[in-house]
């Protein structure tokens, strides 16, 4: 019996979320007195997962799996879970994982809980803490099925290096032909991705136009942050759609979220509420964001942001 983990990678490199799910699975494995087996698809350095708690890595190398395909990936995990007699399968809360996890749960006859934020308080009964009501509340949820699928919220548990080592085994499951492939349209850049970012600097319509985004990018660069934006900003074409965050955009679960010139509409907050510390910069003291924020500056972004960047550069 082991705990199985799906480790996401891009261009052969493990994503930060992959290291976090392995760290999380190790915490569960320690509680249950078992070990962690990771599944890696077309990833380089599969053995590096040992440093985060995996004992074994099932390495799938297949050129036909270049683009994410939920049905194919769910089939790989199902076969790995059965081979390893896994009672718990851990995935991240990325869009890809949220797509494949329900399919996998059906095939394994498992209960699936997403947006989990902590290691289980108990593994018998198996109870996990998850966010609910667009991150406004927490729920302790017991998974009663024999096999359990857990979706860990990104940036909730953290990456923990354990200094261990993992054996790597080639794994060649049978892969179904059908299924819809998903191709990322994000351009390859050196920038931090929103999903992996510990800090996100986000701009709204208060920035008046795309020509003013230089100060957002400069602040993000100083902080090593990803840049994001509100929905109207991407709808207006000021920023690419890949930066749109909120209920209908990408979810953000960063350690720090800085909102510049964003009013704090409920649909925006729904997607960023999981961030640990929220800071707002807005000229209007009545803007709803101030109620959701941990820190707020009532002021003109065009004055505040350059000064903030200057101060941070001096550190
Ligand atoms: P505005 O509401 O126009 O706010 C601009 C803010 O900037 C104001 O608070 C203003 O005081 C401030 N400001 C102006 N000048 C300055 C300055 N110089 N310095 C500092 N502050 C300044 N929105 C999302 O963001 N994400 C979503 O996923 C999303 N999904 C939606 C889904 C549905 C079904 C619907 C109906 C709406 C959705 N929206 C979403 C839109 C949402 O309701 C808001 O309209 C949107 O979030 C507002 O964007 P904003 O805050 O950038 O702009």
UniProtKB/TrEMBL annotation:
The keyword Disulfide bond does not apply. One of its GO terms (molecular function) is flavin adenine dinucleotide binding. The keyword Glycosyltransferase does not apply. Its cofactor is FAD. Pfam families: ETF (PF01012), ETF_alpha (PF00766). Residues 3-182 form the Electron transfer flavoprotein alpha/beta-subunit N-terminal domain. Keywords: Electron transport, FAD, Flavoprotein, Transport. Binds 1 FAD per dimer. FAD binds at residues 205, 261-268, 282. GO terms for biological process: fatty acid beta-oxidation using acyl-CoA dehydrogenase. SMART domains: ETF. Belongs to the ETF alpha-subunit/FixB family. This is Electron transfer flavoprotein subunit alpha/FixB family protein. It comes from Winogradskyella ouciana.
